[in-house]
Acetyltransferase component of pyruvate dehydrogenase complex (Coccomyxa subellipsoidea), 579 residues
Amino acid sequence: MRCTSLLFHRAFASGGLPPHTVMEMPALSPTMSQGNIAEWKKKEGEEFAAGDVLCEVETDKATMDWEAQDEGVLAKILAPDGTKDIAVGTPVAVIVDDAGDVAAFKDFTPGSGALAAPAAAAQEEPEEEEEDDAPAESSGGSGNYPPHTVMGLPALSPTMSQGNIAEWKKKAGDEVAAGDSIAEVETDKATMDWESQDDGYIAKLLVPDGAKDIPVGSPVAVFVEDQDAIAAFKDFTAEDAAGAGAPKKAPKKEKPAKKAAPAPSPAPSEPKKAAAPPTPKPGTAWAGGRVVASPYARKLARDAGVDIAQASGSGPNGGIVARDVQQLISSGGGKPSAAAAPAPGGEAEGDYTDVPNSQIRRITAQRLLESKTTIPHYYLTVDLNADRLIKLRAQLNEALAPSGGKISVNDFIIKASALALRKVPDVNASWNTDFIRVYHNVDVSVAVQTPNGLMVPVVRDADILGLAEISATVKELAAKAKAGKLKPAEFTGGTFSVSNLGMYGIDEFAAIINPPQSAILAVGATKNKVVAQAGGGFGESAVMSVTMSCDHRVVDGALGAQWLQAFRGYIEDPATMLL
């Protein structure tokens, strides 16, 4: 069996540590409260790809594989093979994106660095406080409710911090078997099935179809094992879910505090959280006027159309939490005045439509901005004679006609790119702080436009696939990308990218590198032009313009030119691709 619900705590460069992700013991079944690490399948310093098994976890039901949902490097194992009775949510490992960062975590412990930050930040920032109010899964019979499990939105990729409920596949009252799809969740990567890991019943859905920007861990449904218990949850709310989860918080935070150091200071903070809420005080704002509020509180205010700044904060240091917003709404206050939301200076007046950004578009924007601002791009452009390619394509498509197959110009480009990477392998590489990693596999990412934004599904081992195989693979992946059905293993791990806008009549363009790759090829339209002929004189030929964007840290100008020369050879004499 495999794990599809993971817990991660994303940390940034703090306490002298590079950016990293803390992996926590996941809840692999609704009734699971602790588990054992049977065996780590990856070792410290070892690289992994999406779909790789990181370790075997022994749950209350079975021994299950814990699969990676994204690529990375295992920097530190915090719970070695054979560790038993690990509470759900307890840190068990640290992963990083850059292998050069592994050494920084040699002496890392669960109580040091960024892991200590959430406990301390609970006194300063309601974001951490409120997320704990919505645990990934908490169970019990508090509040006069029968035994139940509050299901939190799972992290379906290590970079996922929030998601959308595209569609519930099960409704309140429905029976659920292990392996059934509970809902379709739109993540920062794709739309993915959320599978049940146990048998039982959905007692209550806490958010409807189409609910957006739900923080990971926020309560979204209630699960019970006894069908007769369903009726008791008819009026159950997300606020009840937060209350039911409260008893779980203290043990979770106290364990790391005791392991980290014998200092008594963290211990007193736990009883304070269990005490009655303090008298509300005005919401605190950081310098610049940003109101300190939890993500869930902000969502409640946004959905109700109230000004969150008018709420009285009762959280740590005057921060605004969910109950403060609910109090504001129930009092009928918080409606923004006309003066409270003036039009930005210089903004043109007139009609417009605000189109919500999908999760895919948001993460694409973030990654491309990081790429353009952190990678030293340079560009090489060359015109190619495509006469022979067009003739060979026509011959091959005529042969494939009875089977319904058809090879596109882009299929030739993918094949030629892969073979050129095999001939000039130093381009098939990525930058790391202490070394350049040269990949032995040639996996070409192909840019595909979808209704939700740009996706780059990967054609694996493109150098050894035939043109017909590449064509079929690209068609299948493109269809899944447009339907939002790509699995993480189908859009991660590419070593080189191809982006083709030739079908739109674009002559040439420069593309942004898709990190951690070191190059991307931008392909323009094939157009008939009068050019010099090999035998002398001038004549009309099909000419294709391509631009290669390179990471100058990895691919020097001469190396990029060598790759383009090899690519040109395959395009202008395409029969050599078939050898």
Remarks:
- The two ends are 43 Å apart (CA to CA).
- The chain has three domains: 7-268, 291-332, 360-578.
